[in-house]
């Protein structure tokens, strides 16, 4: 494969990766997890092909003919980071929700209303005094 053909192929792959990452972001934003999962094999394949064909980093940085590819790869890196941040924020929200639903002390009493509408204490589980 000539250097020009390699450059064109790499640029095509990098732009395809950008598109996949944008679709991934849209899927995450709208919580379409099935769509997100379907994108993963294509993303992995593109990344593998890019890493197989890409010249060394020093060559990408020093030669002006690789400028378009370098810029596309930077946009892909930034899109990947954006998606990772979105995933992390969603996970933090889920963790926060789960921790707010968990009872800190399972033997603590809970206040409930009795049949007359008065607050009464309800002990969860059996205390040592009942034993």
Describe the structure.
The chain is mainly alpha-helical. The protein has one domain (3-101). Helices cover 68% and strands 8% of the residues. It is built from 4 helices and 2 strands; from the N terminus they run ααααββ. It has helices spanning 3-29, 33-53, 57-62, 67-101; strands spanning 109-113, 119-123. Strands 1-2 form a two-stranded antiparallel sheet. A hairpin with a 5-residue loop joins strand 1 and strand 2. Helix 1 packs antiparallel against helix 2 (33-53). The longest helix has 35 residues, at 67-101. It is rod-shaped. The mean pLDDT is 86.
Provide the fold topology.
Layout: H1 3-29, H2 33-53, H3 57-62, H4 67-101, E1 109-113, E2 119-123
Antiparallel strand pairs: 1-2
Helix pairs in contact: 1-2, 1-4
What is the CA-based Rg, rounded?
Answer: 27 Å
Write down the overall geometry.
rod-shaped
| Number of continuous helical runs | 4
| Number of strand segments | 2
- N/C terminus separation: 82 Å
Q: Could you say how many structural domains there are in total? A: 1
H/E series: HHHHEE
What's this model, at a glance?
By secondary structure, the protein is mainly alpha-helical. It is 68% helix and 8% strand. It has one domain.
Essential attributes:
2 strands; mainly alpha; 131 residues
């Amino acid at each position: 494969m000539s250097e020009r053909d390699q450059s064109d192929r790499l640029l095509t792959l990098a732009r395809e990766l950008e598109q996949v990452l944008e679709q991934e972001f849209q899927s995450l934003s709208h919580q379409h997890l099935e769509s997100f999962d379907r994108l993963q094999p294509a993303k992995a394949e593109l990344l593998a092909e890019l890493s197989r064909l890409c010249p060394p980093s020093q060559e990408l940085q020093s030669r002006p003919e690789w400028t378009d590819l370098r810029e596309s790869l930077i946009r892909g890196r930034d899109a990947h980071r954006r998606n990772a941040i979105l995933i992390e924020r969603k996970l933090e929200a889920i963790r926060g929700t789960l921790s707010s639903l968990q009872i800190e002390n399972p033997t603590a009493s809970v206040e409930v209303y009795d049949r007359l509408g008065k607050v009464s204490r309800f002990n969860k589980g059996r205390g040592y005094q009942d034993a």
